[in-house]
Amino acid sequence: MLHAGQVSLRLFPVFACVLFSAVLSAVQGIQSRSARITQENVVLLSAVILVLLFLVQRFGTSKVSFSFSPIMLVWFASISGIGVYNIVTYYPPVLKAVSPHYIYYYFAKNKKLGWEQLGAVILCITGAEAMFADMGHFNKSSIQVAFSTVVFPSLILAYSGQTAYLIKNPGAMSTAFYSSIPGPLFWPMFVIATLAAIVASQSLISASFSIIRQSIALGCFPRTTVKHTSDKYEGQVYCPEINYFLMLVCVLITVGFQGGPEIGRAFGVAVIWVMLLTTMLMTVIMVVIWEVNHALVAGFLVLYLAIEGMYMSSLMNKVTQGGWVPFAITAFFLTITLSWTYGRKKKSEYEERNTVNEEEFAGIVARSARVPGICFFCTDLMNGVPPIVRHYAEHTRCLRQLLLFVTFRTLPVRSVLPSERFLVVREPAGVYRCIVQYGYMDRHDIVGDDFVRSAIDTLKEVADSAEEAKMMDLAPADGVSYVLGRTVLNMDKTHHWFKRIVINELYRFLQKNFRSNVSTLKIDHAKTLQVGMTYEISDKSSS
Question: Which residue intervals define the domain K+ potassium transporter C-terminal in the entry (predicted)?
Fold first, then answer.
């Protein structure tokens, strides 16, 4: 069964296709102004705009986001006005096309050709699904109001105006948008269209960062760098690795296809599959969460699958003509998410089976020499003692007099008060468990005396006696150390060869090349010890 984060990552083909399609289509209109401007010039200009767009992502959108709404309002007002002008000038009855009964006449007249043309018709509704990909920045009601009162009416007028123009000028089919613009308005509309494409691309890039962040939080994607670019809005983040990956993909596809029709086909295939996936997920939500009557759910599913399935069937014959791009991007992210999820599952199963229980840990503590000082043992487990502690104690034969199991976590708040930074409980065998909380704008800094002193002050609140509290005060002077655990999974030959490849090759590669859970911490390397352990996963231990 697909994880929610894995489903979210299926939107990446749409993001990539929208990015290069939007910028390229906006710039392409410049060709109609001069015969000396070739397609290569258009592709080069589009690639430059894309590169610049990705390079400025690290500065965040907060500094320029105030201009997004005015640009989009001017864009929709402009295409609406031009649409009305074309309708009145060329063919006013074109508005009759809004009536759905013309769908029947369309297929009755064109038959198989009409079905084949659905692959081009789908491009008229692309972008609708992208509006809901950025729900972290806008709420549901704002999207509904904007779509119903501005976006949808503007698109109806714009497409109707272009259709009216084409009825009188059928030879301008390939350049309908720019050809239908009155001459004096061409350059202003070119600038507005380019700015609108940049804003739309910016929104999708921001949404891709949000999806990666959510997927990391759900544990179905390796940890990447996530930087918060706004101290007011928690959802505004920047992921450098994802940013440059998207830049590379968009530029390669733009240059590779040279702005040909393959881009439109890739866009259409990506969008219709996202719509199909959304319909199926909505059905699950209606049944499981909303508990809607099953007859109504079945009606919803059949209706939407029939409509979207018809579009999908028309587009599938375009797979070899550019439609393979979204499938290739999906396969790339699917490989990462499934490998990472499966590896984490096997790691969790091993730790659950091999967790050190209280009796065993008490024995480990009793057999180990107690060295003065304080040790922060970093672990992801909030309950129980991880098996790597057994591994550490067996090889060092000693433990610090004051031992804390520390788990770091980031809360969805701007900053955590110092008084709420540490949550400490006393464990058996004279050790402590501590959860260190940070806000998304806090510096994860554990270097220096302030961190240690704050931890000691919190520990003293759960001390059993004044003597124990005094020992805590003296512990930092005897030495402070930080222990980080690093585990490596090894699946033996009792498992199927494919599973061994997933764990021993793919998961290990991801674990090695992506960031660790403590990568965001600023630590004192002179006081840090990393302990490695191999988790031997056999078919016998899995049963």
Answer: 372-537
